[in-house]
Amino acid sequence: MSKSGRIGSFFSSKQIFAMFVGTLLYAALTTLFNVNQVPASGGLIAFRPMVAIPMLFGIVFGPVAGFVSGLLGNALSDYASYGAFSWNWEIASGLLGAIPGIAYFVISRTDWTKARTFARIIVLVVVASVVGTGFAALADYIFHVGFGPIDTAFAEFTSAGLTDAINGVIFTPILLYAYARAFGARPRKG
Fold first, then answer.
1. Which one of 88, 117, 120, 172 has the largest count of C-beta atoms within 10 Å of its C-beta?
2. Tens digit of pLDDT for each residue in 136-149?
């Protein structure tokens, strides 16, 4: 499929279904894991291995599917867990899916099980973790969302960013490998 065909397919029925499934998976698992708080985060940051879900959906279905899965999944989870939303952290979770979604354009499906692909995915996952949590923590500081002091924002950034990066680096390649093996890593069809 041409790159213009890929861009045009972001809102096909397959893509919308992928966004729906990714959103529900991410929301359900995030809600379950919200009780597992990261020590020294003041009870603000949960241990989240499921960050690999929007990352995977971004890689497999494109940055829009990754962004929507992360944003809506986190919003549903926050509402179910806390009865409220935190717009900057919802966007941050969307970025966790959108940035690895760059792989949708630069890595062939037939290369998903190769070592060099995992190296590229790991770089995208770490960048997504830094950018996403950096955005949310900076917005907390600038707009006084939640907590305002810079040291609190920095603590959010380091604990959430490090946790998301570690979980993404471990689980995203595993999920991508499993997905590629299950679906044969066939080339995309138009």
1. 172
2. 988 888 887 665 67
